[in-house]
Design a protein that fits this description.
This protein is an alpha/beta fold. It folds into three domains: 2-161 and 254-333, P-loop containing nucleotide triphosphate hydrolases (Rossmann fold, 3-Layer(aba) Sandwich), CATH 3.40.50; 171-233, no CATH class; 367-558. 39% of the residues lie in helices and 21% in strands. It has 20 helices and 24 strands. Strands 2-1-4-5-8-9 form a six-stranded antiparallel sheet, with helices on one face. The protein has a six-stranded mixed sheet with strand order 12-15-16-3-17-18, with helices on both faces. It has a four-stranded parallel sheet with strand order 20-19-21-24, sandwiched between helices. A hairpin with a 7-residue loop joins strand 22 and strand 23. Helix 4 packs parallel to helix 7 (255-272) and helix 15 (497-505) packs across helix 16.
């Protein structure tokens, strides 16, 4: 079984969207773009506890109650050896025709203005032309025999969850348990006896007895008996966490502990019904109240544990995505109404060894609207300083800078652009020697730009020499083409970062900021260390000059100015 797609019409802030799905899906985007509503579309379809409440007028897109709500999920069941596919086929039966390899599940609702209510209607079919109603008794349908929805909110009521879960996760009592229960009963009787023997309790008895007898003329004795009892042996169980190096118990008062224990409880609950139903995990902002280390740990679990085979996650955190592999990334963003684009990110085999590094960069970048990709950390540090000086909130605007730590821009662009993220590239004007070829060189920077453009705009002919002078020569000779290339968000240095800075800030000011007579060589000797010192000395006027320089027009492109 594999989730193929979902179509949502006229539901909340989704007018009409169609999104490809996989078995593990992550929905991300800025606040108030519809991530929670997307999960609710799935919950209305698969969770009878949500579905039985029906729809109100505000559930219809812009309260357009004239149009029906429609939610359709397509599931691939072509793998007939798969247990989940077998379960679906055994329940659906007659709705599938010979040769049908997909199951379409449709929820439709028309709004009844008199009742002020929209009743959900469920249907399914092996294709989209032969729908039949799903058998229903009360609020329970045949669909509920197949799927079990495990929804974990961003905020977990652990006490309620634990109390509700106990009757499912507690095994039957053993013979040893019955013996222990007898001891508990004896202890309770002893406890009650001791309470009744307390001196202040006896004092009340002695004072109440004569007063009571004076009212009815007979000799009785008022006795106060304790009736402390256990309302079920397990009703007062409270979860605590024992420290790893001591027997000290920590209450689960912290939101982080409660969140992680809730995940553990849900997984235990799931095990009790393992094989009976298909478990769908719907996780809303699992990163809430978890520090970075815990987020990384949780990421490892939910993306690598087979228990989370069918997963739908909303998140704002790049760390939750750190361990993602074979994950369907769905970026939800606002463009008049809500539009969504999806992209399956599968780590290429060639990069498997550096998977975590690749993922960590991508995980941060996919939350942006526009991304400036640069070769190294020095560029990233400098450009961040410049933008913070002139536009301190640039990241809040959906702008992001990161280093690809090399020249392999394409592997990042191939992921980011299909998500609707604008990519801007800044690279060096490298000239490289051709191996075993004396006095033959290639304009490597030009070739790199042409490859990113997908066409040969800049000349790639062999050169007879290299050096700063030659780099500036080929740059200036092709300035018109470079300006045209900039329109496609590809930018190349005249030489490299350090020489471009020297040309922009002029030699005297550059020496002053670097603190060395040979500023370019000094920066390049220990690039990151000395670059940090240089950046710390930059003033606002310097940053403005860099921003306005034609050699750093990539920054204006990032700002979309």
């Amino acid at each position: 079984m594999k989730f193929s797609s979902i179509r949502i019409k006229n539901f909340r802030n989704f007018e009409d969207i169609n999104i490809k799905l996989s078995n593990k899906n992550v929905f991300f985007g800025l606040n108030d773009v519809g991530k929670t509503n997307f999960l609710y579309a799935l919950r209305f379809l698969f969770d009878r506890n949500i579905r039985k409440n029906g729809f109100i007028d505000s559930d219809f897109f812009q309260k357009n109650i004239k149009n029906d709500i429609e939610i359709v999920v397509e599931i691939d069941i072509s793998d007939t050896d798969n247990d989940a596919s077998k379960l679906i086929r055994s329940i659906v039966k007659g709705a599938l025709r010979s040769g049908d390899n997909s199951l379409y599940i449709q929820l439709k609702s028309s709004y009844n203005s008199q009742l002020q209510y929209g009743e959900p209607q469920l249907m399914w079919a092996g294709n989209e032309t032969n729908y039949e109603s799903i058998k229903q008794i009360g609020s329970f349908t045949d669909l509920d025999k197949i799927f079990n929805v495990i929804y974990i909110d961003a905020y977990v009521n652990l006490k309620e969850l634990f109390s509700r879960s106990l009757r499912y996760i507690l095994p039957d009592a053993s013979e040893e348990d019955y013996d222990i229960q007898k001891l508990i009963d004896e202890d309770i009787r002893s406890l009650n006896s001791h309470i009744s023997d307390l001196s202040n309790v006896k004092s009340i008895e002695e004072e109440l007895t004569p007063i009571f007898n004076s009212y009815q003329g007979k000799e009785h004795k008022v006795a106060l008996k304790s009736e402390v009892s256990v309302n079920g042996y397990y009703s007062n169980l409270t979860p605590y966490i024992e420290g790893p190096d001591s027997e000290e118990l920590y209450p689960t008062a912290g939101e982080g502990r409660r969140k992680l224990l809730a995940y553990a409880l849900y997984k235990l609950l799931m095990r009790k019904d393992e094989g009976k139903k298909i478990n769908l995990f719907l996780l809303e902002e699992p990163e809430n109240h978890l520090h970075k280390g815990m987020q990384l740990s949780l990421s490892n679990v939910i993306f690598n544990d087979d228990a989370y085979e069918y997963l739908f996650v909303t998140t704002h955190s790049p760390f939750i995505l750190y361990e993602m592999n074979n994950v369907n990334l769905v970026r939800i963003y606002s463009l008049g109404n809500i539009n969504s684009k999806s992209y399956i990110y599968k780590v290429p085999y060639d990069f498997e060894k550096s998977r975590k590094l690749l993922n960590s960069f991508l995980a941060e970048a996919i939350f942006a609207n526009r991304v400036l990709l640069v070769e190294g950390p020095s560029e990233a540090l400098l450009f961040n300083k410049v933008l913070l000086s002139v536009k301190p909130n640039y990241e809040a605007l959906g702008l992001y800078i990161f280093s690809v730590r090399g020249i392999y821009f394409s592997k990042f662009i191939d992921v980011l652009e299909p998500l609707g993220i604008t990519c801007i590239v800044k690279t060096d004007n490298d000239i490289n020697a051709i191996p075993k070829k004396k006095n033959q060189f290639l304009p490597a920077g030009f070739k790199r730009c042409n490859k990113l453009l997908g066409e040969t705009l800049l000349p790639e002919e062999k050169l007879s020499c290299k050096g700063i002078k030659k780099q500036r020569e080929i740059y200036n000779n092709n300035i018109a083409i470079i300006r045209k290339m900039n329109e496609s968000n590809i930018f190349i240095s005249e030489v490299d970062l350090e020489h471009d800075l020297q040309s922009t800030l002029k030699t005297k000011r550059f020496k002053e900021l670097v603190g060395h007579e040979h500023p370019v060589k000094h920066l390049q000797d220990k690039k990151q260390i000395y670059m940090v010192e240089f950046i710390n000395r930059l003033e606002e006027d310097d940053c403005i000059e860099i921003l306005n320089s034609s050699l750093f027009s990539c920054l204006k492109a990032l700002l979309n100015e």
